[in-house]
Structures are given as C-alpha cells and as structure tokens.
Design goal:
It comes from uncultured Campylobacterales bacterium. The protein is of the alpha/beta class. The protein contains 10 helices and 10 strands. It has helices at residues 2-15, 25-35, 58-65, 76-89, 125-142, 147-171, 185-191, 207-218, 236-245, 260-270; strands at 18-22, 39-43, 69-72, 95-97, 106-108, 114-117, 176-179, 194-197, 226-229, 248-251.
Amino acid sequence: MKYIVLIMLLCNIIQAKINIYTTIEPIKVMIEMITGNLADVNTLVNGNSDPHTFTPKPRQMFDISKSDVYFSTGFKEVEDVWLSKIKKQNVNFNVIDITKNINYINSVCGHGHIHNKDPHIWTSLNESKTLLFNIYEELVKLDTPNRIIYKQNLTKALDYINTLDIQIKQNLKNKRYMSYHPSFSYFNRDYNLSEIVIEKDAKEPKPKEIIELIKQAQKDTNNIQVIIVNKNYIPKSVKLISNKLNAKVVNISSLINWPNNLLKLSLVVGEN
C-alpha cells in the first residue's frame, strides 16, 4: 500500500504544470507555443481590457502572487504599478524580464518629445522571434528535464513565424494607412509601412488637427483607403476622416488573436 501511495505521489509531481503569468495575451500565446501542455499560462490583462487603464481584481492579484513565475515584457503602465504591489504580498514573487536583445522604438508624443520605449513589441515578428527564444531560455532554467521538448517547440514556433513573415511580405510593399492608436510601429518598421496616427497624446484630435490629418492623407497620389481602429466603437474623429477620404474603417486589435491579426492587418492594408 505504501508503494502505491508513493507511486501516486510521484505521478502527481511528474504531471505538475508550471504556473506562469504574463501581462497580455500575445505573450501568453508565445509562452504556450514553447510550453505546449507543460504549463498553465494566464494573463494579468485580458484581451478585452485596455492595458493603459486596467485595474486587476484582488483575487487576481492573489492568484498571480502564488504563480511560479511572471514573464515581464516591459509594459510599464501596467507592470510598474501592479507587479510592485504583488511583490508586497509575496516577497518571493518571481518576475523574469523576457525582453533581452529587443530592438526598441522610442514613443514620441504629439509635440515631438521622446518618452518611454514603445511597448508593442509583439507586433513585430522579428522581435517576437527574440521573445520566443528568451522564453525558451528561461523555461529551460526553470524546468531543465523538459528542455528537449522546449527546444522542439521553439523550432516549430520559429518555423511558423518565418512562414507567416513570408505571407505578410507578399501582401505589403511600401503601403500607407491610418490608425487611431499607434499600436503597430514595430510592424511598420518590419515591412517599411507609412502610418498616420489620428489620436494626439492619447486624446481625440482637435478640429484643426483633423483638417491637417486629412491634408496629410491626401498628399500622396494613392489616397489612404483604410483606417485601423482597436476599439469596440468608432471615435468621432475617425468617422469624420473616413467620410472625407472615403476610406473604410477596420477593427484590428494588437492585443488579441496574435499573430493572426498581424496577417489580417497585412491583408487589409495590402489590398488598398
């Protein structure tokens, strides 16, 4: 009987999954690409929430504090506030930065001033490959016995990203588009895209600014035909500009359905 109990305990230990948290859904998808079924992965911010204004519930804070590891992505507006508070609940809270070797873009406000690093690094497939490798390295340290599985999964993930990259390149070539919020700067850099951003310092543009945006969009002989939004509603400024340009408005979020929404963006921009 003792041997049976011992075997059952050993089985439970072997089958125990790593409990991982991260900030947003795209990074969760990347982690799951590497872990497969060897980990339970959850996010601080769900896909339907705005990370810039997000407030977690007390129960969620407690659950995160008990996780095995938190993979940090440098999303300062979220992590600087909430991870420090979670650390107070559990001094052994294990936070690992997975942004090593990321080639950041600096955020620029409407007045031309450089602020923090642009946090939307997952919108670049090149930077995503760096993230995947960093995740792999950290998982091998945390769970060395499964390093071969993690290596195999990394290879599959990188192959998939490279294939997707080829598809996107076929859709895009020196294209221009408008967006309400600057979520895709890294994507633009990867594929040499020109983006006109509508919001000014995270606010609706003023009437004079809307006129300037329309003039800017009309400068090229190939007028901008699409405006990207990432909200459940269409802001007033977008309605005004789209009507003037006769441009269609498409809702594509950078926070959900990664990396398929990057392919969707390439298809929408590429057909115009």
